[in-house]
TrEMBL record, chain A:
Residues 6-126 form the NIF system FeS cluster assembly NifU N-terminal domain. Transmembrane segments: none annotated. GO terms for biological process: iron-sulfur cluster assembly. This is SUF system FeS assembly protein, NifU family. It comes from candidate division WWE3 bacterium GW2011_GWB1_41_6. InterPro entries: NIF_FeS_clus_asmbl_NifU_N. One of its GO terms (molecular function) is iron-sulfur cluster binding. CDD domains: IscU_like.
Amino acid sequence: MDDNLYREELMEVYKSTKNRGTLVSPSVEVLEKNPLCGDQIKLQFEISEDGIITDAKFDGSACAVSVISSAYLMDNLVGKSIEHAKKLTKEDLMGLIGINLTTSRVKCATLALEGLKNAIGKYENGKSNTENKNKNR
Amino acid sequence: MRRLKRKYMNDFPILNRKINGKDLIYLDSAATSQKPVQVIDAVTDYYKNHNANVHRGVHTLGDESTELYEAARKRVASFIGAVTPSEIVFTNNATDSLNLVAQGWGLINLKKGDVVLTTVAEHNSNVLPWEYICERTGSGVEYMELTDEGLLDMDVFKSKLTDKVKVVVLSHASNVLGTILPVKQISELAKEKGALVVIDGSQAVPHIQVNVQSLGCDFYAFSGHKMLGPMGIGVLWGRRELLSNMIPIRFGGGMVLDVDKKTYELAEVPECFEGGTPDVAGAVGLAAAIDYLDDYGMENVRKHEIELTSYAIEKLRTVKGLWILGPHNPDVRTGLISFVIDGIHSHDVASILDSEGIAVRSGMHCAMNLHKNMQISSSTRASFYIYNTLEDIDKLLAGIEKAVGLLK
Ligand SMILES: Cc1ncc(COP(=O)(O)O)c(C=O)c1O
C-alpha cells in the first residue's frame, strides 16, 4: 500500500464532485459528526423496495480522509443491497481506499462507515415502525 | 546570540530524530514541550540513586527522597514568587489543579444564584470543572466574548462583574489565540467586588515571567510538561488562607495525621491535598526544568519567542486565504500561532506538514466553545519554544504552501 494520502489520484477523488451533493428524495439521511476535529458530513441514500441502494451522496465540511473515504464508500454502495452494506467492515473500507492510515486518522476514515451503519439502522427502524403500524390497523 | 542558541538546542536529544526521512521540526510545544537532557538525567538519577517513598518510613533513602521532593516544592515556589513553599500543591497536571480548586473551594463556597465568570476562549480543563460544580451547587458559569482580535474588552469585563460573581476563572494566556490577559488589572477589579480570581497558567508559565503575588490572583494552575518538565507533575498555587479553608478531594494515605475508625485528622496544607504516593521523580524533573529555564532566562525566552512570532506572522500573512487567529501584535500574545486556510481542513495541513517532518497541532485544541464562537470547525496551530529557529518557520511556510498547492 502507498502511504501517501495526498498522492495525485486521491487528490482527484478529493476534488471530484461525483458522489458529492444532495439527493432530491432520499429514503434516509444522517448527519455524522466527529466532535474531535469538527468534521460534519451528511450521507443520503435512495433505497428501492427490494432493499437495493439505488443512489448515494455525501456532503459537508471535512478533511481529505473523510471526504475520500466517503467518496469511495458512496461509489461502491450504489447498486448493492443493504444486506451487503451492513456487512462492510473498517478493513473493507481501508482496502477500497488503498492507504495505510496512522491511528489518529483512522477515525476520520471510519466516520462515513459509522454514518452508513446509522443510516441503515434509521431506515430499518422507520420501516418496521410503519409495518407495525400497518399490522395494528 | 546565535551560537548561544545552538548550545541550548543541542540539549534536546529528540530534535535529532528524523520524521518521515526529514529532520524533525517540532512546532507543538503548546501541547507539550520537549525535554532537555538535564531534565531527563535528573529523573533518571532520581530512580537510579534515590528512589523511595516520601513522608513514610525513616530509612536513609526515604529521607533523601523526601528532601528532593520538598526541595522541588521550594524551587517552584521561588520561580513563581509564592510567599512560602507550603502554598505549592503538587498535582498531576493543570487539569488536576483546576479540578482541585473547583471542587475543594467551589463545592463549599458556591451557592444557588452565584456566578462563575469566564470567557469563551478557555480550555475545556478550565471550564468543565466549573460547569460540574455549578450544576451541583445551583450556581452558573457566565461566558464573556472576546473582541474580533481575540482580546478581552475591559469594559465588557467590568459590566459582567456583578455582585453575583464569586469567582473569575481565566487563562493567563490562551492556547489558541495566544492572547495574554491583563491578570493584574483583572484581579484588582475582581478584588473590589470581593470575587476570587483563578488563573490557568498552563500557557503562560513556560513562556513569560510569572509572579503570583504581583499578579494579585488567588489561585494559579499549571503543568510541568509544557515547561520542559516531565509529564505527570502539575502545580496548584493558592493563597495560604484559602488553601487552609479548602476541602481535600483525594482521600487516603499521606493526607491524614491520625485515623481512628470514624474520625481522622487532616495533615497540614499542602500535604492534605496530596493523597497517595506523589510523582516524586516528576517533581525532581520539574525542578531541573526550572533550573534550565532560569539559566536561559525567562526574559530571553520571551525575547526569542517575540522574534519568532513576529517573523511567523509576517511570513504566514503572505499565504493567500490564510487567516491568523488572535491579535497580530506580538507584545500581547505568546509564541503560538493558530490559523485557518479557506477550504482546507486543519488535519490535512497537519498531515502534509508531518510528511515534511514538521509537527503541528490540528483540531479544536480542547477549546470547542471558542471555535464554535468563531464559526470555524478547526484550526492548525504552530507553537514555538526556546529550541525553535527562524529556519523552522521558513520550513513551516514551505510546508503550508505545499499543502495549499495540493489541496486547492
Ligand atoms: C490553556 C490550557 N489549560 C489547560 C490545559 C490542560 O493541561 P494538562 O493537559 O496538562 O492538564 C492546557 C493544555 O492542553 C492548556 O493549554
